[in-house]
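writing this on my phone so excuse typos. first protein, seq and then structure
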Amino acid sequence: MGGTVNIDGPIQVMKGPGRLEPTVSTNLRILDLPFHAWLEEVFSKITKFCGGEMELLDVSNLHAANVKLVRVKPEMVTQLVEVFSDRVSYKAWIASCPYPSWQTLWRYKQTQAKRGSVLVTTEQGKFFSNGFDLAWAESVGSCSFLHRLQHMGDGLKAIMVDLPSLPMPTIAAVLGHAAAVGFMLALSHDYVLMRKDKEILYMSDLDIGLSLPDYFMALLRKKIHSLMARCDVVLHAAKVKAEEAVKMGFKRKRARKRK
């Protein structure tokens, strides 16, 4: 395994898609790993952080020769946890652009990332994401509610387009419940990593009478191959745990806690 280096720098992060939170300080650790060691290394670190056995839902065909991982402490950041870059260029870029948004980070990586990078998204606190911040949208009154909702929706669609097009594998480490937009955000990644019997994926919009946008359904058709499973998700608002998600047609790999 290659050497490591620490990088300190501020990153502005989001409380769910569409709302920026204050700047936080992050500590990034770069690891150079051969591809055959990558999955074991990444999953063992996440598993060690949360404890127990975990399920990996593989929703893409991943082929890469080698992976460079830059790790940010999960407890320090909301949603965006890991950013991947060349050591020198990242230092120079973070100094010139200290407050990047999600889209800025991902689009920068789309142009700068080299083969072998990987991006991992996870949560800070109890939930991966409960979706749009409806309280924020409603705080300005009914006249501007739809405008704010549309603003958040446009941001989400941009993220859902960016994630599959990144020149690197992407992993959603779901260490807390993912509901509504949070569910869609997780499914937009190449992999979804969950503890075996704790977190749930849940289309909570249905329980409050909201209809699902067409791009939600397009993503669900692509990621959940079983028609009956999709019906459970979009008609019955099923609360899906990792083992149940595997039965819905996801490929599976397992990461066990190291002794």
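second protein below, same order as before
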Amino acid sequence: MVGDVEFLNKIKPYNKHNIYTKIYDIDKDGVVKIPNTAKWLVATFEGMKDGCGLFNPTVGGDIITLILDDEENNFFAVMSFLTKEEAVDLAYKLLLHAKFSREPCLERLAEVY
């Protein structure tokens, strides 16, 4: 639990998982439709400066951020902050679901760790 508190303190003022809807319409069922052109990004969270989060696409750092980037609207719709362990677990599961488990991709992931 101490590790969780330390991690959450490092990402303040963000929560672990954040969904931003300000620029989108919300339908009668509470659904927000993010444009199909939005893309997933991975970046390192480097802290805050002047009230804005600093995210670096260069590999490295302890806090990995999974971001759904709505480039058309210059807006991050989703941000989840992951520990290295969570990121490796997610990468492994994504590769398995993408059926790359017998491909060199999984070996490349193993080389990193």
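The chain has a mean pLDDT of 89. thats all i got for now
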